[in-house]
Amino acid sequence: MPTPIITKDLCKGCELCVHACPEGVLEMSKEINAKGYFFPVVAHPEKCTGCRFCLLVCPDTAVQVEAKGKTTVRTEGLTPKPFHYCPGCTHGVIHRLVGECIEELGIRERTVGVAPVGCSVLAYDYFNCDMSQASHGRAMAVATGIKRGRPNLVVFSYQGDGDLASIGMAETVHAANRGEKITVIFVNNAIYGMTGGQMAPTTLPGQVASTCPLGRDVNHAGWPIRVVELLQSLRTPAYLSRVAVHDPKNILAAKRAIRKAFKYQIDGVCFSLIEVVSTCPTGWGQQPHEACEWLEQNMIPYYPLGDVKLPEAAA
Amino acid sequence: MYSEIIMAGFGGQGVLLIGKMLAYAGMKAGNEVTWMPAYGPEMRGGTCNCTIVMSDKPVGSPITRSPHALIVLNLPSLDKFEASVRPGGVIVVNTSLINRLPRRTDVTVIPVAANEIAQEAGTPKAANMVAFGAYLGATGIADLAVVKDVLADTFASRPKLIGLNQTCLDRGYEIGKACAAQARS
Amino acid sequence: MAKKLMKGCEAIGEAAIHAGCRLFFGYPITPQNEIPEYMSARLPQVGGVFLQAESEVAASNMLYGAAGAGCRVFTSSSSPGISLMAEAISYIAGAELPVVIVNIMRGGPGLGGILPSQSDYFQATKGGGHGDYRVLVLAPSTVQEAADLTQDAFDLADHYRNPVMVVGDGLIGQMMEPVEFKRSISPEELPAKPWATTGCSDRKPNIINSLFLNPEELEAHNWHLHRKYQDMAREIRWESWKLEEPVDVLIVAYGTVARICKTAIDTLRARGVKVGLFRPISLFPYPSEQLSQAVEKAGKVLVTELSTGQMLEDVQAIVAGRKPVSFYGRVGGMVMSPEEIEREVDKLVAS
Which residues span the domain enclosing B159? Predict the structure, then answer.
């Protein structure tokens, strides 16, 4: 019989797994873990179908699943170091997806990642491959330097909306336009998380942030930037796709896109950028599961999901 | 041996080229040389120019305010640089395009109708070579045969131009030599 | 190899290739465009990569990436471009990466002009970007020296894992002189860099980083860097010219200005004036001790620069009031002539 296995001390009590479970297998504990959080306990093991939704949504790899005598483990693409992200932050999910793709494609030993400035500034501690820190906005320039110097490496950058679409927009557009054979993971959570919730270039109209306390006024701040559509207009072939990580189905789709993005690079085809629409429960002032709902209702209408450009389609 | 030369004209007259040729010839003869294109306020005022310094010792300043020789292919260049030439120096003047002679009396003036001579030889574009030849003839600063080698190297990708330019160099050389001899006598 | 007549900019580019560098990232700016132009033609011939970046900001971060990946890499720019690179240079110094940066200085501040200048002395030797870091700075005065120092710069950068900057002015970039490349190394012959992000196939992952959130670690890192900058004292380079006997006037100048002074000194000495030249070649580390000794045997000191007095402050600190120090500067792209130097020396001798 399948069953979730909780590593309770990795848990930050976001409850996403409890909300994701379609069968009500999990409940939150009455006691706290070493970090001071309530954590999920397997209250109704008999109801588990082994769907792995709990594992998929867990941002801290605190949930694994045992089924048919096999237990899932944290991917080799990640170091064992626990993530520092806030409870329920989907950075952890995206890290896991990238790590799994690196492992499954067998490229860990020839991959170099570039960490940005922003919440994922410490990404170099989590990806189990060579890593380079970059200054704010310059991750794609750094990635360009690595890839041009050592074309046999698989190079990816991992960047947030402020890093990629504000201070680093020039580097973004030009790396894409040159068709750098790199893979960009663009985490769009519509806010500046690390600095405390200021307006991002992708903050939605009317969305409140600490530097737009009355909500984003598009007549003052302009409209939020749709990065993949903006890059789509470039003639250079590219793989551009937008995915989301607020529920298990979308998380699986996100992984397929990320994997495809790496594959295009491995095959020397094109620049690839995956925009991952994600949550910032802390910055948005919401519970993690509310943030997922808010994402679905507010972000996806403005940031439609799906492949926006395929290299095969280019003229 | 130590000599500073300014070569000046308008853009397209090929003063930078003959300057480089002199520098090459100096280097081939075992001298220290610098070639410096107009850089600084000299860039303004209708002249394109370069400074060559040639010495048997390492060259100090690559720029000069008082050259030993001046080759001018147009009037603004003569107006600009005439006063700077050291007493006892040489001024080669392209009389084809300059309607006056230098006012200086303490220098050797080599007037040469460079454009006409070059035209006779086949192309007015080689006026720079005529003036350069005149300077070489007047001063003997570099061996004509070495300069001709440099010329052949310079035009290696356009071999048809070598003979023509050598002719212009020769014509100028004779004029310069004769003028200088006359000035000394 | 036979001597070739080359422009300073071209000689710098060719020197980089002889140093085993196969990567150039840069952005056009006058008066150093001959360097990227030369590299764009030359690097593909030797299997290298030239990439024109979208900005100096991007170019300098490409440098960071490539240097982190263990490649010999360089860029060139001119003053306003170096300001844009200042951020990356700080990161490169913090992450201890070897890069070579050439600054063909032009007049500032702001856009200034495109003509020769030495007004980036402070920026080059005292920092330029944020944080407690230093860049090893070399200042050639001939085209041959520009080539030699550029080649050395790559070795020094690798040895100290630190940015090395070669500073010239527009004169040295545009000037042609005979140059000879005395040594050449291919990228394959260069020593391995086990710390670089080359892929972790036979080791634990490497991380290139300048972030230290723990203050104890950051303090230790800063002192480590500081010791490294002190160790660079081994690389001090200078030229003493006509200083065998005591002089009435000691001229202190670097780069092209120093050679203008040499012409003036020849003329002055022919007139019986006792004058000599101290020329720092490494601007950081500065040849303080050597200058201090030269000052002992001099009556007066004259500092001359294409600035309103930047190196002057270092010289004043070294002289420390022992001898009178005067200054002669030209700025804005104006360059002093040997005659101007003669006049300044004559004034000092007469006073």
Answer: 2-97+106-184
Chain A: give the shortest CA distance to residue C58, in Å. Answer: 5
How much is the mean pLDDT over chain A? 96
CATH class name, domain A91-313? alpha beta
Tell me the nearest-neighbour CA distance from C308 into chain B, angstroms. Answer: 18
In the predicted structure, residue A147 carries a pLDDT above the cut 60 = yes
- Residue with the two structure tokens 């794609």: A140
Instruction: Note the CATH number of domain A3-71.
Output: 3.30.70.20
Of the partner residues C59, C197, C201, the one whose CB lies closest to the CB of residue A112: C197
**Nearest to residue C118, comparing CAs of C73, C173, C175, C163?**
C173
What band does A261 get if pLDDT is binned at 50, 70 and 90? Answer: very high
pLDDT at A315: 47
Shared-domain flag, residues C337 and C229: no
Q: Do B35 and C142 touch (CB under 8 A)?
A: no
Residues of chain B with C-beta less than 8 angstroms from the C-beta of C256: 62
Indicate the residue among C234, C259, C280 that finishes a domain: C234
Residue A6 CA to its chain's centroid (Å): 22
Sheet holding C247-252, edge to edge: C238-241, C275-280, C247-252, C298-305, C325-329
Residue numbers of chain B with a pLDDT score lower than 70: 39-46
Residue A193 near residue A228, CB atoms below 8 Å: no
Q: What's the ipTM?
A: 0.90
> Which of the residues in chain C have pLDDT under 50?
none
Is the Cβ pair B61, C264 closer than 8 Å?
yes
From residue C254, give the alpha-carbon distance in Å to each of A51, B55, C82: 73, 22, 20
Mutate which of B16, B48, B63 to disrupt the C interface (most C C-beta within 10 Å)?
B63
Is the Cβ–Cβ distance between C187 and C48 less than 8 Å?
no
Chain A partners within 8 Å of C68 (Cβ): 132, 142, 145-146
